[in-house]
Amino acid sequence: MENEIKELVGDLDIPSAGFTSISVDYGDENEAKDGKHACNDPVNHPYHYTFGNIECMDLMKDMLTKEEFHGYLKATALKYLWRFERKGNPVQDLNKCKFYIDKLIEELEMDDE
């Protein structure tokens, strides 16, 4: 898996984060791949953000520093808030914005523990 990641992002020093192997099954989109992520939820866990059993956000959290990850969550929430009126489904985009804000709150609360 580490070689696949390096192929995607270049020669960054990426810790393996325990991803020593990956099983890719592009079967039923509605099937949760690992019991953790519901892959058919366009707001909380979009299918196209999951590769095998790894969701993009999980990989980013492992690759970024805590501060960088918080910045990513903040910027992504702002992106959805900024453009929600200019896209086809404003309620869905506001729910995506809320998802990233809630995730940032969750991360900050974990930091306080």
Q: Can you walk through the features of this model?
A:
It is built from four helices and two strands; from the N terminus they run αββααα. With 113 residues, it is mostly helical. The termini are far apart. The protein has helices spanning 2-9, 56-63, 66-83, 90-112, and strands at residues 50-51, 54-55. The radius of gyration is 15 Å and the shape is globular. Strand 1 (50-51) and strand 2 form a beta hairpin. Helix 3 (66-83) packs antiparallel against helix 4 (90-112). It has two domains: 2-63, no CATH class; 66-112. Strands 1-2 form a two-stranded antiparallel sheet.
Offer a few descriptive terms.
mainly alpha, 2 domains, 4 helices, 4% strand
Largest sheet entry = 2 strands, antiparallel
Low-confidence stretches: 14-38
- In total, the number of domains comes to 2
Distance between the termini: 32 Å
Beta-strand residue fraction: under 5%
Strand-and-helix sequence, N→C?
HEEHHH
Mean pLDDT: 73
What is the strand and helix layout of this fold?
Blueprint (H helix, E strand, L loop, with lengths): L1 H8 L40 E2 L2 E2 H8 L2 H18 L6 H23 L1
Antiparallel strand pairs: 1-2
Helix pairs in contact: 3-4
